[in-house]
């Protein structure tokens, strides 16, 4: 079938070529030149340009009319500003579009070829250059400054009493988290994620398990590396070389022989040898006249290590590993990564918030919700976005809000919803309407399904709903805080709770 299509295409090309040739030949016979075009043809083409211009403008006008009002009314404070900015841009773009195309096709019509007309020629005009440089510069500057000011409405610092919500993305769903009474999100870490703790909020048990897991993995990698044949041989060669170098400095013993000992005990065979003594009491200055104590101690350690390596190479061959350079590098990288993970958890564990709240307390009363989350109307909300796997984009079209959600880099914006879900259902005459949070970054196979409903309601309804949401660690009577956490933090917590209650 494909071959057939290819054949048809080839035959077509050949046919067109032949036709062109025939036309050329017949023109030559009738004495007509290729560039001789009749006046009627020229006028026809010129008029077609004009027809095209009219049809083009008419269809663009139709598209504006049919699709120009693409979004329901903005449901946030800054949303109106975003819409105004958008309209402002559209008006400028439309004006430039009409002007440029009218000139382009209008001139093609007006100045169609006329054998009696002579073109004027001028190479340069400073005034024209100035006009088409300065005017676009001013227009662009206005657009950029206006745009940045609108952007600030979303991104400047939220007020102190703003509600804080974390939106967490992963392939392929969203999770929302409220701070709870203490006003702080519990710290979280990728390594603390479990099926029951999908956000990886820090808990003493979580830290213990994660640390154990990291240590286990580190132990495995370290053990692999310590039995890698090439690494052992390289280490041995380096130790031998440094012993020899040291020896040359002192003009003393033959360490080449020394370094070939089978194991540590072999030192004893050498009886009164200097190094047997070193072995006995390394680090002790007394009794080593020709070597410094430091030097002697180092030598003993080096020789012990050589003996150890020899033992492994000769007697523990079943434990030896032979790895490629790339494999060794991968293992070393993994070790570094695990150490970094461990370090981060240690830092999180000891973290204290400005209000004295410890790391473990902050997370305990966090409320984690899925499927939908609620917002009170007229109240400023600060969103913080985190991602577990790839870059997602939190898009709330009705609030004219969007922000990338990036692994490892928390992002944020603030907004104030102005229309409740109920009112919007009335405005749109659609009882099924719901505000939505969508993913607006193609993030994988089920990207299209990555959605969360948003309910905007009165302050009372919102509080009643929030009241019903589970707190992260439910067992309040038996707090799973470690012994080392001092009692006073509990007081700080209740004080902060009281303060927040007063604000509301
Ligand atoms: Cu996504």
Walkthrough of the structure:
- This protein is α+β, with helices and mostly antiparallel strands and 504 residues long.
- Among the domains are: 163-187 and 357-503, Immunoglobulin-like, CATH 2.60.40; 229-319, no CATH class.
- It has helices at residues 2-30, 39-67, 77-110, 126-155, 204-226, 229-250, 255-258, 274-280, 293-315, 325-349, 359-364, 421-428, 459-468, 488-503, and strands at residues 163-170, 173-178, 367-370, 372-376, 381-387, 392-396, 401-405, 411-415, 435-439, 451-457.
- Strands 3-2-1-5-8 form a five-stranded mixed β-sheet. A five-stranded mixed β-sheet has the order 4-10-9-6-7.
- The longest helix is centred in the N-terminal third of the chain and has 34 residues, at 77-110.
- The structure holds copper (II) ion.
- Copper (II) ion binds next to loops.
- The site of copper (II) ion (CU) has 7 residues, from loops.
In the CATH hierarchy, what is the class of the domain at 163-187 and 357-503? Mainly Beta
CATH domain topology of the domain at 163-187 and 357-503: Immunoglobulin-like
Give me the strand/helix succession: HHHHEEHHHHHHHEEEEEEHEEHH
CATH superfamily of the domain at 163-187 and 357-503: Cupredoxins -  blue copper proteins
Helix/strand-derived category reads: alpha+beta
Bound molecules: copper (II) ion
* CATH architectural label of the domain at 163-187 and 357-503: Sandwich
The radius of gyration computed from the alpha-carbon positions, rounded to a whole number of angstroms, is 39 Å
The residue-averaged pLDDT reads 78
Summed up, the helix count is: 14
Sheet with the most strands, sense and barrel status: 5 strands, mixed
Shape: extended
Low-pLDDT residue intervals, each spanning 5 or more residues? 251-292, 475-504
Query: Strand tally, please?
Result: 10
Strand portion: 5-15%
Can you list the strand order of the major beta sheet?
3-2-1-5-8
Helix content: 40-55%
Task: Report how far the terminal alpha carbons are from each other.
Answer: 73 Å
């Amino acid at each position: 079938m494909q071959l057939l299509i290819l054949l048809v295409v080839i035959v077509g090309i050949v046919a067109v070529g032949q036709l062109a040739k025939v036309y050329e030949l017949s023109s030559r016979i009738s004495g007509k030149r290729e560039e001789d075009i009749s006046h009627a043809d020229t006028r026809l083409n010129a008029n077609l340009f004009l027809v095209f211009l009219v049809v083009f403008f008419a269809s663009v006008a139709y598209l504006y009319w049919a699709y120009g009002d693409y979004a329901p009314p903005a449901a946030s404070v800054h949303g109106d500003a975003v819409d105004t900015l958008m309209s402002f841009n559209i008006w400028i773009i439309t004006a430039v579009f009409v002007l440029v195309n009218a000139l382009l096709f209008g001139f093609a019509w007006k100045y169609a070829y006329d054998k009696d007309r002579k073109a004027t020629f001028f190479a340069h005009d400073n005034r024209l250059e100035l006009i088409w440089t300065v005017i676009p510069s001013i227009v662009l500057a206005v657009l950029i400054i206006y745009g940045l000011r609108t952007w600030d409405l979303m991104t400047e610092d939220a007020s102190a009493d703003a509600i804080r919500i974390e939106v967490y993305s992963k392939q392929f769903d969203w999770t929302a988290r409220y701070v709870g009474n203490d006003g702080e999100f519990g710290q979280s870490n990728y390594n603390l994620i479990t099926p029951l703790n999908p956000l990886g909020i820090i808990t003493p048990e979580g830290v213990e398990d994660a640390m154990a897991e990291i240590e286990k993995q580190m132990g495995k990698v370290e053990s692999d590396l310590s039995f890698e044949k090439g690494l052992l041989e390289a280490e041995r060669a380096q130790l031998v070389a440094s012993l020899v170098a040291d020896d040359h400095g002192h003009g003393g013993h033959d360490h080449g022989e020394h370094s070939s000992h089978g194991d540590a005990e072999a030192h004893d065979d050498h009886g009164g040898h200097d190094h047997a003594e070193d072995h006995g009491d390394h680090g002790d200055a007394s009794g080593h006249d020709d070597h410094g104590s430091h030097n002697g101690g180092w030598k003993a350690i080096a020789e012990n290590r050589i003996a150890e390596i020899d033992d492994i190479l000769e007697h523990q061959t079943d434990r030896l590993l032979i790895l490629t350079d790339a494999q060794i590098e991968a293992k070393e990288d993994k070790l570094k990564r695990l150490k970094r993970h461990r370090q981060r958890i240690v830092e999180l564990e000891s973290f204290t918030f400005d209000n004295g709240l410890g790391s473990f307390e902050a997370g305990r009363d966090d409320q984690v919700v899925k499927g939908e989350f609620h917002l009170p109307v007229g109240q400023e909300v600060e969103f913080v976005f985190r991602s577990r796997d790839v870059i997602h984009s939190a898009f709330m079209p009705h609030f004219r809000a969007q922000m990338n959600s990036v692994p490892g880099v928390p992002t944020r914006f603030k907004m104030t919803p102005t229309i409740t879900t109920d009112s919007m259902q009335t405005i749109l005459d659609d009882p099924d309407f719901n505000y939505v949070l969508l993913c607006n970054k193609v993030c994988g196979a089920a990207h299209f399904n990555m959605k969360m409903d948003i309910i905007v309601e009165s302050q009372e309804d919102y509080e009643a709903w929030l009241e019903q949401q589970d707190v992260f660690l439910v067992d309040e009577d038996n707090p799973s805080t470690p012994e080392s956490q001092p009692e006073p933090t509990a007081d700080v917590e209740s004080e902060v709770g009281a303060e927040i209650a007063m604000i509301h």
